[in-house]
Amino acid sequence: MTTDKLSRPQLFKGIALFTPGGDLIYCIDPSKHGRWHLHLCAALQEILDLPEPPHFLVPCYTATIDHWLDPRNQQARTFAEAYPAVIRHQAVLNAIFRTGDLVWQAAPWQEGMCDRMVLATYRSSFPQLWEDHDLIVRLDLAEPTPKYRHAVTSAQKLQLKTQGYVLRLFVAGHSANTERILHNLHELLERSLGHPYTLKVVDVLTNPEQAEIDQVSATPTLVKVWPHPIRRIVGDLDHAEKILQMLGAQ
């Protein structure tokens, strides 16, 4: 997975919200005044087509970082903590917030709020949250400190900035044909896409669960997972124009 190249202010507060499936949405707030947890939940609702904002993910699946100026010596200091469910993602957090090899502290567990059995009861209503869409999304708002109501009801005020394209190539085993398809696809993407991309190769023989999640019934299949809408090409992947049209890159 790639990380975004948007500028990061020298002093800021960063908030990251993960899903149980491993997707990530985050923000960088220089003003430190925004109600960003609410905005992140609203954006997840928009991106994953959820029935409502998944507020139950907070605080269990969150991580926060505060890069602040110590008034006593005018030195920049950093405080970073993540909840136990997501602290294993420290490398990703350091990549998106550009904090090197910073060691994150484990946030205190919230009794009664982060019970795994309780969280599991949401899975049937929010199955998208338990799927891995390979998403790393940075959220910015058109207004510095908008009301939460606007973030939910006015999609045009959300600017979702991602790392370009997330693609999956589904194949059946390793063969010369698979190598040829992969080689040609890499050449086409490097030559024609104006944005970074992530291409994940999935062998349906060893990973049938992922094929089922992406509704893949034949190989080879190329799936554009992001940006939405999801698109796919099944079978013949030799037509460059067809692939570029599917990607919206023409």
Mean pLDDT: 78
Overall strand count: 11
* Order of adjacent strands in the largest pleated sheet: 5-4-3-1-2-6-7
Low-confidence stretches: 1-9, 142-163
Distance between the termini: 24 Å
Order of helices and strands: EEHEEHEHEHEEHEHEEH
Number of helices: 7
Rg, rounded, reads 20 Å
Beta fraction: 25-35%
In helices, the fraction of residues equals: 25-40%
Structural category is: alpha/beta
The major sheet is characterized as: 7 strands, mixed
Shape: globular
What's the short story on this structure?
Helices cover 25% and strands 26% of the residues.
Give the secondary structure arrangement, pairings included:
Elements: E1 12-18, E2 24-29, H1 36-48, E3 62-70, E4 75-82, H2 90-97, E5 105-106, H3 116-120, E6 136-141, H4 148-153, E7 158-161, E8 165-171, H5 176-192, E9 197-203, H6 208-213, E10 221-226, E11 231-234, H7 240-247
Parallel strand pairs: 2-6, 4-5, 8-9
Antiparallel strand pairs: 1-2, 1-3, 3-4, 6-7, 8-10, 10-11
Structural features, described:
This protein has 250 residues and is an alpha/beta fold. Helix content is 25%, strand content 26%. It has helices spanning 36-48, 90-97, 116-120, 148-153, 176-192, 208-213, 240-247; strands at residues 12-18, 24-29, 62-70, 75-82, 105-106, 136-141, 158-161, 165-171, 197-203, 221-226, 231-234. It has a 7-stranded mixed β-sheet with strand order 5-4-3-1-2-6-7, sandwiched between helices. A 4-stranded mixed β-sheet has the order 9-8-10-11. α5 links the parallel β8 and β9. It is globular.
